[in-house]
Amino acid sequence: MQIDQQKCVACGNCVPVCPMGAISIDPVRNRAGVNADECVECYTCYRGMSMEKLNPVLVRTIRGLLRVFRLRFDPEPDVCPTSAITPDELTWPRVVRRAFSDPQVTHESTGVHGRGTEEVKTNDVTNRVGLGEVGYVVEFGRPTVGVRFRDIEKMTRALASIGIEFESRNPVTHLMTDKKTGKLRDDILNEKILSAIVEFKTRIENVPAVLQKVDDISKTLDTVVAVGVSTRCAEDGSSALDPVLVEEGFSFVRGKTNLGLGRGND
Amino acid sequence: MTNTLHRYGSGESFNDDYIVFAIPARGINDKGAVEKQRRFLEIARKHKPINMGDASHGSIFRPSKELNPTVHWRRDPKRDFDTVVHCVSCPSTVAAVFDNPDQVVAFIKELRQEDLGLSINISAALDKAQECARRAGLERHSVEYSLGFFGQTDRMADRRTLELSTMCGHGMLSFDFVRKLVEWVKQGRRSPEQASATLARFCSCGVFNPTRACRLFEEARRVGSGIRGQGQVADRG
């Protein structure tokens, strides 16, 4: 993402909007600029902010006059007055930043938008996670911290070392050059993204060891890791995962409940 | 839609937070899904959701690319349900947010009758979601638990900022922007409703809960913010 230097009036509205803190005002040039290494191409500034198309010279003049007379103007905080925010043409490998950071982009590898996964949301149709199995969604960089692929690779390699098989219908798995070792493509390792999910499943008896591994590796990463686990329920709606998680000392409040109303096309 | 799984807050904090969403399974039942998704949103609308959206095209709160300067004194608070329904154009996730379990139950009962064939999920406190399912005559098929946050949790924000920011799990609500609006509400420069609508415009899939946000902004105005809490940071025994 770029800020058009001809249009920017240094109002500062876009600065706090950036989830990565990648936008700042240069006090010398009095313009906003984007730190390209920190920008994850999430389009939050471009799409989330509303735009006016005011003349930049006029806006700067009015702002200058207001300053002279010590008058304060309280503008809407989510408006770019001169439509100065401009997307870049993205090429490989930078394009993976947008694929993993802009929720409105559909992942080519899975055909799913957002983080590109269906998890157990469609389990009533896919039976992705069966009875006695547990699905894991290990998510990096969330909330609003960001992550580089080299940190994700630390986790995938560690999980592969204990025999984990990664979900094939997942965008991170598609970036692996060796699914047996969890190795990711070298040319993306330094790319920073807003978040990504690693997915896999195990038998329910493996849950304690896997969660311990995830916990241990998470402590070595320069980011936050959000963890979700899922399972198929019994006919009475009970979940065999409840007592396992309680035994492991987890408290769980929030989750997603699949109501089983899905079915394949007739 | 993992974006609704890891909302931050205590159990009580989710009493007014129910997201019902429909999703097709890629390659299995996504043919003809667009019409079914529109139907889902039309039915949802009858049950008075507080937000609604299509993950590919946006929510009822939308930024505008053609504002004029009067907006700074008079922002149109329009909630655009029609556009959400009409814009659905590809298989995607469509969602409706409710602040009342009775509306959720009524909505699910109607979805059962409609028999769309799409996967329907409730993202909420697990016990509340199961209660809604049972009241609608269903047992849950599968369940996904949020185990909270691991790793460098000291890089996360304070409790109130997280409660607001994680209502867009895709990360479109930056900590700094949330803090700015909390401060503006405390200073009386914006009402909780205005601040809530501002945040909602950044959540492009329509799962932001403006009722909960208003309540959190109101609490911030009353008691101040910045209290660091444990919330759902993973804490094992």
Q: What would you note in describing this structure?
A:
The complex is a heterodimer of chains A (266) and B (237). With 266 residues, chain A is α+β, with helices and mostly antiparallel strands. Chain A has two domains: 2-88, Alpha-Beta Plaits; 103-247, Aldehyde Oxidoreductase, domain 3, CATH 3.90.1170. Chain A contains nine helices and 14 strands. Chain A has helices at 14-17, 44-48, 56-68, 95-101, 123-126, 149-161, 171-174, 207-218, 241-247, and strands spanning 2-3, 23-26, 31-34, 50-51, 79-80, 85-86, 133-140, 147-148, 176-178, 183-184, 192-193, 196-203, 224-232, 254-258. A three-stranded antiparallel sheet of chain A has the order 12-7-13. Chain A has a two-stranded antiparallel ribbon with strand order 1-6. Chain A has a two-stranded antiparallel sheet with strand order 2-3. In chain A, a hairpin with a 4-residue loop joins strand 2 (23-26) and strand 3 (31-34). Mean pLDDT of chain B is 91; it is low at 225-231. In chain B, a hairpin with a 3-residue loop joins strand 2 (51-54) and strand 3. Chain B has one domain. Chain B has 237 residues and is α+β, with helices and mostly antiparallel strands. In chain B, helix 7 (192-200) packs across helix 8. In chain B, strands 3-2-4-1-5 form a five-stranded antiparallel sheet. Chain B is globular. Helices cover 37% and strands 14% of the residues of chain B. The chains are: A alpha+beta (266), B alpha+beta (237). Chains A and B meet through helix 1, helix 2, strand 4, helix 5 and strand 7 of A and helix 3, strand 5, helix 4, strand 6 and helix 6 of B. Strand 14 (254-258) of chain A pairs antiparallel with strand 5 of chain B, so a sheet runs across the interface.
